[in-house]
Every structure is written in C-alpha cells, then in structure tokens.
Design goal:
- The protein has three domains: 146 residues, Jelly Rolls, CATH 2.60.120.290; 121 residues, Sandwich (Jelly Rolls); 47 residues.
- The chain contains four helices and 27 strands.
- The strands form eight sheets. A five-stranded mixed sheet has the order 1-3-10-7-8, with helices on one face.
- By secondary structure, it is of the alpha+beta class.
Length: 394
C-alpha cells in the first residue's frame, strides 16, 4: 500500500512540473510527509508562474496539523515599487482560505509555519515585470501532517510538531514542550538569569531562553524604567525586519507608579498594514489612546493611571524594521505631589544629607560642652538646646 502511495505521489509531483522544470497548475497531497519546490533542477525560477499546492491530512484526520519547514527561500521583491514574486501560505485547502503568511525575498531563518487545522495551501506567483528584474532560486520546503501531545504548545511559541515529534523552542523541554529549563545560560547575564529552574529575561529580551529574535505573546514590565525595548532583535535572526503575522503585547505596570511616560526612539511599520495600538490601562478594554503605523515617531504618551498596554500586530506580507521605545515612571507622594522614577534617589540623597547634618550638630554640641568645661565657662554663644541656655555643666 505504501509503495502504491509513493508511486502515486511521484506521478502527481511529475504532473506539477512542465518538462521537469517550472511548476504548473494545482497539485493535491494527502500523505504525511513530502518535499515541495517551485521548480526542478538547478538555476533560478522563470516567469511567469501560477502554481498551487494543497496539503490535506490523510483520511482527513481531525487532530493532525500541517507543518512546513523551509530549506531555502530566494525570490525577487521590491517594496519601493511593490513588485513581488511570492509564496502565499493559506490556513486551509483553497485559494480563498485565510492567509497564514506570505514570503518574498531572501531569507535563511524562516520559522516553521503551522496550520490551525488539518489542511494548508501554498500559492506561488511570479510575474512578468517590466524591465525583467532578476529572479532567485525560488523555494524548497518540507511538509508534515501529524499530531503531537498538546501540539507541542505551538500557540505559545514553545515548540512545533513535525512527523509526530515535538521540536521545542529554547528554554522548553518535555514530550509536549511544556517543561521550562534554563537553556543556553539564559543568553548570558546581559539577557537573562536562571531563577527557580527557568530563565528570567532582562526587560526587552524574549523566549524561554531569552534568545528568541521576536517578541513574546505578552511581556510584562514592572521595573520603574526601561531605557530601550524593541519588537525584535535583528542580531538574533540575521535580518532587520520583524516577523510576519506577529501578535505581541507589552504590559507596562511599574511597581508603585502612579503614571507611566512612554517615548519612542525609532518607528517603522508597514503603512496601513502593520500597527501598534496603545491603551491607557492593563487590557484592550481600557481607553484607546491611539493606533500608529508608518515611519513617523508617535508622540510622547503619558498614562492617566499606573499602566499602559501596547499591542503589536503585523500582516502576512511585507515587513519593516519595527520600533524601539522606553518608559519612565511617575510617583505621587502622600501630599499628592508627582515626581519621576528618580524621586526615590532624591529622597535617599535628602535623607543622607539630613543625617549628615544631624551627626554634625551632635558633634558640635559635645565639642562645645567639652570646651566650656575646659575653660570653666558657664555659657556658650552658640546654644544647641535648652540646657545650654541654662548653663548646665556636662
């Protein structure tokens, strides 16, 4: 039976290519594993191309999930002219299924893409652009249709299922990628430390091992101030752009603060497609302060209360360089006076000064007493308390 399925699959794949080279038409797969590429043989792809691959779980097994892992991706794309040769990944079997993500350009660090159900579609389009811009190698990927325990907690970015086995993200282990541990030294002390058997990341670093290049589903800040945090770390994934289909939030809730001041130092999101929404509170039911897109810096934002929420979403296509922001805290004393997060240091400095003054005064008092005793003088021109005024001996 397996031999028949293999032969049938090879026959179907052969139909998908014209003369063994460029793909053509639509191909359906119903096996548990395979390899898909845009063209056979070496060299670059040709234009135009219009090809579809639809992957469905064998026997429509409802608990299976489709996972694709890229071997390479190299296509033409020009964001300035909005010209792209692209691969569109669909969350279902059909042209009209929802988009999961679409890719263009040269990318060697594409994370696995997983369907929400038991089918997935791949839509490959190349165009006869004017000027005949260069092409690339195209793409090659592996796909799997299988099921794993808790699907490896993929919705929390803890791992992914491929061929029935969980492949865990950094900082997670166990058969379902649900056991945290201190992996990779938590990225070194500059990124995180090991606490209670799991990594505690420095604010602004992500993932179970503090080495993930992209933002977590939710990050909570409780420090009084964070100078810089970004939506992603370009140095950790080899590219400057943020990930497609991102959905991340940052809850800024400094301990003891009465208000939060947020300020941006860099901002570049795909205009009208990728967004940063800001809320005046701890959830998206709080007052909506604004939606920001494009490459203009948002204004400085001050919350009305002790928290701000940032929610970052990106579409399935073009990506930009993202944003960098920082925040400080404002505190209110018992008299209702406000100050920045440096007020604590000012209070400490004031108390130290006051303590030093008191110590000096006590020292002066006893020195004067000693001097009065020595000279047998009954009073001093500098009185430090009532007893001195009465001329009492020490």
């Amino acid at each position: 039976m397996k031999s028949i399925l293999l032969i049938a699959t090879l026959l179907v794949v052969a139909v998908a290519f014209v003369n063994g080279q460029a793909c053509s038409g639509t191909v359906y797969f119903n096996n548990t594993y395979g390899i898909i590429r845009d063209h056979n043989g070496g060299g670059n792809y040709t234009r135009p191309s219009n090809c579809n691959w639809f992957i469905n779980s064998p026997d429509d097994q409802p608990n299976n999930q489709i996972t694709i892992v890229f071997n390479y991706l190299d296509t033409y794309g020009n964001a300035a002219t909005q010209q792209f040769d692209f691969l569109d990944v669909k969350d279902g079997r059909g042209i009209n299924a929802p988009d999961l993500v679409w890719f263009y350009g040269f990318d060697q660090n594409i994370p696995p893409v997983l369907s929400s159900g038991n089918s997935m579609g791949l839509i490959w389009r190349t165009w006869a652009f004017s000027g005949n811009p260069p092409t690339g190698r195209g793409f090659e990927l592996q796909y799997s249709s299988s099921s794993c325990p808790s699907q490896c907690n993929w919705k929390n970015n803890q791992g992914y299922c491929f061929n029935g086995q969980c492949y865990c993200s950094g900082g997670w282990t166990g058969p379902a990628c649900d056991v945290p541990y201190c992996a990779n030294n938590c990225g070194s002390s500059s990124r995180g430390i090991c606490q209670n058997g799991r990594c505690a990341c420095v604010p602004g670093f992500y993932g179970g091992d503090c080495l993930a290049p992209t933002c977590d589903k939710q990050t909570v800040f409780t420090a009084h101030s964070v100078k810089n945090f970004s939506d992603h770390h370009a140095g950790l994934n080899g590219k400057n752009e943020y990930e497609h289909a991102a959905n991340c939030s940052w809850l800024i809730k400094p301990t003891g603060a009465s208000r939060v001041v947020l300020e941006f130092s860099a901002f570049d999101l795909e205009q009208d497609w990728d967004f940063l929404d800001i809320y005046d509170g701890e959830s998206m039911t709080a007052t909506f302060l604004g939606r920001y897109s494009g490459n203009s810096l948002p204004p400085k934002i001050t919350s009305s209360g002790p928290a701000l929420l940032l929610h970052f979403t990106t579409d399935t296509g073009v990506a930009s360089t993202g944003f960098t922001a920082g925040y400080t805290s404002l505190f209110t004393d018992s008299d209702g006076n406000s100050g920045s997060n440096t007020s604590g240091y000012l209070v400490v400095a004031f108390l130290c000064t006051l303590l030093g003054t008191a110590i000096g005064a006590v020292g002066l008092h006893f020195y004067q007493k000693w001097q009065l005793k020595k000279d047998d003088v009954r009073y001093s021109t500098v009185a430090t308390n009532e007893e001195d005024l009465l001329g009492e001996d020490i």
